[in-house]
């Protein structure tokens, strides 16, 4: 299938992409990937409706619906007589970035490796459908991974991956890379949510982490989205006695617009 690739911010033909369920979805995927991957930086002018109509051989109404969806997601700003412009990211910096646990361990000057404990292909549960934006009739992959520091359990990772967005994950063995960094290399995201909490270890987590039942643990729940659909949801459980969170960040400032200066 011929798609739309990117070269210096311009649209160029691309091949080898997985087929999309509809032309609307194909256009949406192509445009949003340009945006969230940074290939179209903030301020970049999206090709006009007429240009997109000619590129994809579709109606102008289809293109208009795609651009409207991108605008509602906050990825573009639509202006009369100007067109659609890629918007700047939120000026507030996230306290926690999406990081590689391996890098976290190595920063402590400890050896790192990971073990894939469980791997299951299945449909989402009712609880997952309530807590995540997942297609109910499409499979996901469920993973349990143990991250080790100096051969001691460091973090238990429990993750689901939406195969409707990342179909290649179904065939990935996760040998060279653990699921987190693998996903960052393979699929762009436009929104993420972190939730950090103190808890007591469940029986399964305590057994995996080799800690006492109901021992204190630090739990990081994270979910990432591609437009309005969940890419992945993960729970990271750390032994509370052996882990702390440190974040260093600075405020970001938005350049003044003409309206701000007046």
Structure keywords:
262 residues, two-stranded antiparallel ribbon, 26% helix, 31% strand, elongated, disordered N terminus, disordered C terminus
Plain-language structure description:
This protein is an alpha+beta fold and 262 residues long. Helices cover 26% and strands 31% of the residues. It contains eight helices and ten strands. The protein has a six-stranded antiparallel sheet. The chain has a two-stranded antiparallel ribbon with strand order 1-2. A two-stranded antiparallel ribbon has the order 3-4. Strand 6 and strand 7 form a beta hairpin. The protein is elongated, with a radius of gyration of 21 Å. 27% of the residues are buried. The N terminus and C terminus are likely disordered.
Mean pLDDT across all amino acids: 81
Residue share in helices? 25-40%
Number of strands: 10
Strand order within the widest sheet? 5-6-7-10-9-8
Distance between the termini: 50 Å
Low-confidence stretches: 1-20, 90-95, 252-262
Order of helices and strands: EEHHHEEHEHEEHEHEEH
Strand content: 25-35%
Structural class by helix and strand composition: alpha+beta
Nearest-angstrom radius of gyration? 21 Å
Please summarize the sheet with the most strands.
Answer: 6 strands, antiparallel
Number of helices: 8
Shape: elongated
